[in-house]
Amino acid sequence: MIEIRFSAQKTNGQIITGNLTEPSFSEAKKKIYKLAEKNQLKIQKIEKKIGFIYKIKKGKEKPITGEQRAFTRDEVVNALRKLGYEVLSVNRKFLEFNFKPPMQEIVSYVKISAELLEQKLPYSEILTLLINDIQNKTLKETLKQINNELKKGADSETTFLRYQSVFGKFTAYMLGLASKSGNMAEIYKATAKFLERKQEFRKSIKSALITPMVTLFVLFLAVLFYVGYIFPETAKLFVKFKMELPPMTAFTLKISDFLMSHFLIVAVVCFAPPIVLWRFSKTKSGKLFMDRAMLKIPIIGSLIHKTLIEVFCRVFYTLYSGSAESIEPIRIAAEATDNSYFEQQIKNVAIPLMIKKGVGVTEAFELSGVFTETALSRFHSGEETGTIKNTALQLANYYESETVFRLKNIIELIQVFIAMVIMIVMIGLTLVSAETATISPKSPMIK
To answer: Which of 54, 111, 245, 325 is the most exposed place for a label (fewest CB within 10 A)?
Structure first.
């Protein structure tokens, strides 16, 4: 997020100024010019807050350097002089890379904040402590801006949502909501739990799916290189001297000739599908298709499905306060799953049924088609007894225990499978190489 300041002139000649924060400079300019057109303003200046590196000293003390963000160099110089420093130099920082902070940094910030809130420490003090300790520059700068805005009386929900590109939409919403709630510590604790589970789930999925797929793909390329380039260099020597080739060697040489004569086709077949699939997954319809397909993967799909329900239930439990206000918690919980298919079914099927036709929670969830029979049965029981909030927490804990245990076993099985595939391939290559070593020239005819 970047902060923009603009000045404009009204039709009566009055000069006005304003500030706004947007993800990019181009988006900020579009919003400013749209505002100017609507209110008949003439834009005079648009400035972006940038970083400056300064060098200062006080009296006979050793000079110190630091970094400060401001709209102009003069603002930095004047602010430092007001603090009693002698300004030696202030230069613009030309290369600014603000990468999104690692998930672990955000989890650590939320978790520590929850612990300190439980100890009744004021939130402003917590922010100050964390700003001094956090190493990631992007997160540190973001918390500084949030702290400054909150001190000026800005709405917490609006402030945090402004930085959803840093925290993520759900996390920003929860942290902003926490300041308005009566129990900040509980919401921060629930958010930390959610982020930890999300991080753990992604790590497990990477171990279960991504790493094995990459391993097999690299192994495939290595075999192609051996069969297409290394093996022919030896085998063709025997062909040159008109020696008879054993069956496996002859067959492998034919494959090699085919690969080398159709190199471009083989390259396209190997690399095009992953690239096309990756590009397709970045589109809205592609993400929807991929997210739906993920739920149908044998064995792994059911675990992914149950993990999504766990996340949904955990967030729903945190936000739900009564049947009269169930729509918003359901919407936010659906977004928190980070699965576009699950989210679409809840938003486009379940919620409209509840609003327009007055359908109950359980029936709406059933018609959405994204909940298991177990989950629907538990929600039905909770809805009848008025304990749907506690039912959601029980479901979340149940599915967490089940998926963690089963996913660990599946990862071990996949690792064994990959090891067996590698072993089979290596045995095949060894047999072909060993067979090649048995080739010998024919004995000359004795007359």
So the answer is: 325
- Contacts of residue 291, defined as CB under 8 A and 6 or more positions apart, other chains included, come to 339, 340, 341, 342
Name, in order, each residue with C-beta under 8 angstroms of 284's C-beta and a sequence gap of 6 or more: 340
Longest dimension (CA), the chain: 119
* Confidence (pLDDT) at 447: 43
Distance of alpha carbon 273 from alpha carbon 126, whole angstroms: 49
Q: Output the average pLDDT for the chain.
A: 82
> pLDDT tens digits for 313-358?
988 888 887 655 678 889 888 988 888 999 999 999 999 999 888 8
- Quick one: which of 166, 193, 188, 192 has its CA closest to 176? 188
- CA quadruple 218, 220, 226, 229: dihedral positive or negative? negative
User: How far, in Å, CA of 292 to CA of 341, rounded?
Assistant: 6
CA distances from 23 to 48, 145, 338 (A): 12, 14, 21
Distance of CA 83 to the CA centre of its chain: 41
CB-based burial of residue 153 (10 Å sphere; 0-12 exposed, 13-18 middle, 19+ buried)? Answer: exposed
Distance CA 198, CA 336 (A): 10
Question: Which pTM value belongs to this model?
Answer: 0.66
